Amino acid sequence: xxxxxxxxxxxxxxxxxxxxxxxxxxxxxxxxxxxxxxxxxxxxxxxxxxxxxxxxxxxxxxxxxxxxxxxxxxxxxxxxxxxxxxxxxxxxxxxxxxxxxxxxxxxxxxxxxxxxxxxxxxxxxxxxxxxxxxxxxxxxxxxxxxxxxxxxxxxxxxxxxxxxxxxxxxxxxxxxxxxxxxxxxxxxxxxxxxxxxxxxxxxxxxxxxxxxxxxxxxxxxxxxxxxxxxxxxxxxxxxxxxxxxxxxxxxxxxxxxxxxxxxxxxxxxxxxxxxxxxxxxxxxxxxxxxxxxxxxxxxxxxxxxxxxxxxxxxxxxxxxxxxxxxxxxxxxxxxxxxxxxxxxxxxxxxxxxxxxxxxxxxxxxxxxxxxxxxxxxxxxxxxxxxxxxxxxxxxxxxxxxxxxxxxxxxxxxxxxxxxxxxxxxxxxxxxxxxxxxxxxxxxxxxxxxxxxxxxxxxxxxxxxxxxxxxxxxxxxxxxx
Amino acid sequence: xxxxxxxxxxxxxxxxxxxxxxxxxxxxxxxxxxxxxxxxxxxxxxxxxxxxxxxxxxxxxxxxxxxxxxxxxxxxxxxxxxxxxxxxxxxxxxxxxxxxxxxxxxxxxxxxxxxxxxxxxxxxxxxxxxxxxxxxxxxxxxxxxxxxxxxxxxxxxxxxxxxxxxxxxxxxxxxxxxxxxxxxxxxxxxxxxxxxxxxxxxxxxxxxxxxxxxxxxxxxxxxxxxxxxxxxxxxxxxxxxxxxxxxxxxxxxxxxxxxxxxxxxxxxxxxxxxxxxxxxxxxxxxxxxxxxxxxxxxxxxxxxxxxxxxxxxxxxxxxxxxxxxxxxxxxxxxxxxxxxxxxxxxxxxxxxxxxxxxxxxxxxxxxxxxxxxxxxxxxxxxxxxxxxxxxxxxxxxxxxxxxxxxxxxxxxxxxxxxxxxxxxxxxxxxxxxxxxxxxxxxxxxxxxxxxxxxxxxxxxxxxxxxxxxxxxxxxxxxxxxxxxxxxxxxxxxxxxxxxxxxxxxxxxxxxxxxxxxxxxxxxxxxxxxxxxxxxxxxxxxxxxxxxxxxxxxxxxxxxxxxxxxxxxxxxxxxxxxxxxxxxxxxxxxxxxxxxxxxxxxxxxxxxxxxxxxxxxxxxxxxxxxxxxxxxxxxxxxxxxxxxxxxxxxxxxxxxxxxxxxxxxxxxxxxxxxxxxxxxxxxxxxxxxxxxxxxxxxxxxxxxxxxxxxxxxxxxxxxxxxxxxxxxxxxxxxxxxxxxxxxxxxxxxxxxxxxxxxxxxxxxxxxxxxxxxxxxxxxxxxxxxxxxxxxxxxxxxxxxxxxxxxxxxxxxxxxxxxxxxxxxxxxxxxxxxxxxxxxxxxxxxxxxxxxxxxxxxxxxxxxxxxxx
Lengths: 480, 867
What we know:
The structure holds two protein chains of two kinds.
Chain A: H1 2-20, H2 22-25, E1 33-35, H3 36-39, H4 43-58, H5 66-74, E2 78-80, H6 89-92, H7 103-119, H8 127-152, E3 160-163, E4 166-169, H9 195-212, H10 224-237, H11 241-253, H12 262-265, E5 276-280, H13 294-298, E6 311-313, H14 315-321, H15 326-331, E7 332-337, E8 340-345, E9 361-365, H16 366-379, H17 383-396, H18 412-426, H19 433-439, E10 444-445, E11 451-452, H20 465-470
Antiparallel strand pairs in A: 2-6, 3-4, 5-9, 7-8, 10-11
Helix pairs in contact in A: 4-7, 4-8, 7-8, 8-9, 9-10, 10-11, 10-16, 11-16, 16-17, 16-18, 17-18
Chain B: E1 8-12, E2 21-25, E3 38-41, E4 44-45, E5 77-83, H1 86-89, E6 100-105, E7 111-126, H2 135-150, H3 155-164, E8 168-169, E9 172-173, H4 181-185, E10 189-201, E11 205-217, E12 224-237, E13 242-256, H5 267-273, H6 302-308, E14 310-327, E15 332-351, E16 363-386, E17 390-413, E18 428-452, E19 456-467, E20 476-486, H7 497-500, E21 502-514, E22 526-533, E23 536-543, E24 552-565, E25 570-589, E26 598-621, E27 625-642, E28 649-650, E29 654-655, E30 662-665, E31 667-671, E32 678-681, E33 687-688, E34 697-702, E35 707-717, E36 720-730, E37 733-735, H8 739-742, E38 793-795, E39 798-809, H9 812-818, E40 822-836, E41 856-866
């Protein structure tokens, strides 16, 4: 009996001890992932989070292809060749619901940027890093929020929408989220603010980034000049002409941006173009989009350069360009595909020494800023200055300069039209066309002859059903 | 195990040698986590599932690494028991929600040393060949498809006929030479098996030794399996109080597999789809490929894959342990066990530069995976009888388990010569991958039992289990159960009945848990790797934390009756069960604007209800002849009770109020006799040729069977025994994806079709369900012939003669003369006949039939000797 008691108490002792230690006994640690909370306070964790945003941008669903190609197809610059690989057909036909469906990706980027901004001050990063990373993250948040505003909301200068239920003015923007989510309890169910408030948030972020960042470093990471260039675009998009001009001046006079001369302008596409204010580059082995990249969808030159080459320049774009334009002669490749005359864009040419899909992607470049300024100046009545800006890209492309005043000098609406035509040509296939038409209240004249009114609901994307189903505060866009 | 027990469904998903089987105890138990039961071999929890590390969409599923149960040599098994109701399973608490399969191996016994030798040989053949078109018929359909669409004199018709080298007179294709590609894909399988075991010992020490070897050549080209195993059991009584034991099982098993599913390298699928005018070889003996107007269409010559490529895997497995039992006194016993389960898997795939690897100049993938699973279990047992009528038992225990899985995989391409097949010879090694995962389980349990006069029985169990997979707040779950039984036949009021008969009423209630199939770190907030940019590695939040993530639970009520009547010649067990599978893990959707799409939460409820019947009868029993029958039947139906708050469905298959995996599809209405177009019913019941999404309906059936069972007869006459077993299953529908490829009425005229397609619509008035041949697609104004409607959901019901075995035992006299204890000679046939209404190979599968490696008919003969 005695012996038994000893054993029983022994067992109980073991059990109690184990119970006491049990929270520890069940400790495990993953090795291919880290604990989120602690990682986000470290220097390395924040740097990695920032890097992941650039990586997302590189993907074919973002600037790696879709966000660049689709606005050209939804508008009037590109159309799909008759022999094709079934890619982007619905977008080219403006089928309802076929747009740039990257809501979740955009807000994923915004969340990661928020996590960096929220945590960087309390992290182990150095003071210089804190400033730099906060500046970069603030810029990247603004860039993705700007994309969201373009894709999912009406432009503030063009709020009228015609949907199935008739015409209406729709002024909702996209949610502005500034608190990072790293835990389920932090999830909010945001409503849509006015589109003006969304633009306010974009401009505020970019202004902050401008004061945090410097101009040192490569153009393939965010620098101060990138914030200024994007500010000039954002102000132009919301019709704040004086500010658009001011920020363009900052870029063009600040010394960090180059207007490439014709000698390098035409030969540098795809590889370290001197016009790059901000762009993306792929190092070898870093998962470039390959056959899902821009070159593959836009261009081929068999047998040396393979490609789907599904997108061809429309007749109206070619008519605007004219055959004398060097940009037509040197950046458009006229070929025959399955009996059809096609005109490929060569801005992503598979540059020599690069792998398939490894061409650089310029997201902000000097000529755009120049044209931002031209338009902003023209809208303010500074027409001679505007024509001066306009002539810079024209002359480089082998066209004659407009006189800045007097006979032959375009004025008023004619000048605006010239600037927008120049913008169409200069920035062709770079993902600007749809937004330029929308913000200037211009209809989309498709290559087949049909016209999509600028108020057509299909020109902006529906909010994804996954958001609408879960988030009762979220309103859908008209027509969907 | 197949067919042996009511409530236990065993489905061979395919006929791959060493391939995986699906075992379900009382139906599907979870929506997102695992429904696989817990396997315990001699007290050791066995790591099940797969150890595949080579991710490959069309991967050779059949490789042995997909079924770790291959480690068990069937000849070592003494008995298999399945704990179905949670009261009996609840002592395994945390992991018992899907039932427990207890395998007991042959044990050492004291006494005269015994040597047993068992060996068999056999041949196998695919269960059936599909009845496909001959070359002439296939070209006839292709010709009509082109002529119907483009006109008999069109260039398309000429191109097609020239391509296949055919001529046509008066609309009829002249006879062509036929290649039967199925004959090239299938072959005679061969199996051989040897087992030798020795056991013996004295009152102090006993031992059991066994070795086995099994080799199987698959009935599909280029597939095989082999296993060698060795087992040692050693038990020793140190003194009256203490005994110790150890066991060690080593096995190594390998297979070469073929690609399955839609892969061009799948010989089964391409066997019945390769166009029969094609020849497999060029005149110089090389493999003929699609070129020079030859019609392979999209299909490669699969012989290049089966001959040149390699898909190999090998698993080395060790299960070993020691145990000690100490009898504290007459009533109290302490037992401790320590066990290790170690598993090393090697996988290799090689894609030959002369064949499928041509575009990248050959590629090699290699992976190795290690699983280490340590378990220790300590119990204190108490059993005592007070007086003549009171029996009391108790148990107190603790258990700990640690499982660690690591892997390494890499891939490379660009080989200088096809003979170089190693990673290091590739020009570009790519995507090295190191995998890591671990989990820990800790449990404490207690059990108390009381029996009065063998008449009233009550058992209580409670178990508290913790798993490292769950959140801080919910790591531990509590799993109680009660079971009661009343042996009514022993009551006085049953009178004489109780003397020769037996009857017992049972009731049990219990809760068990499930953590299998849930990610090791599912509850954590994680920061994962996310690409790279300009030489810097990226990382990002990959998973939101959920501290409330916890166990899935199975709460079951079980009502049963056992009886044995007519002098115990008829015994039966009948059970009714109702299980609430609750707290099931579901993806709870989050607003994508948060940067995340979902989080896992314990919100789902699934109900499983069913009845089980097991009946054993002795139909005839005399000195020389005995006939016994075993019949079992199970009916089980589940219903989705609850999903996330306010959520009525997840996709179309998981709908509140319906069976899991419900089928939502279009309703086929046949072929219009006037013009040969396919017709469907729209949502109003009218005929439509172009059904819309809204026209889908619920078939009110699921891909999970509703009923299954087996019927086994054993007849013994003198020294001969005949045993035959029928199996049946049904109430389910199979998604017949292959059928959409081979029932196109010739409209895709580069692949072969089923013979049934000759019933095509030809002229107005034809009543048929095969539409008019129309090249490339469906006729204008109708839907594609591949349109997935209930036309391609086929009934899964079948009845199968699973096994017939005739055994001849040597009589005592002969045995003595030969110095043997026991000897028998047997002949067996498996899968000899199947009754089903199914258009492809075999309805014994669940879900989707797409390039499935079919089962075989097998004949074996063997010899079993005991010295």
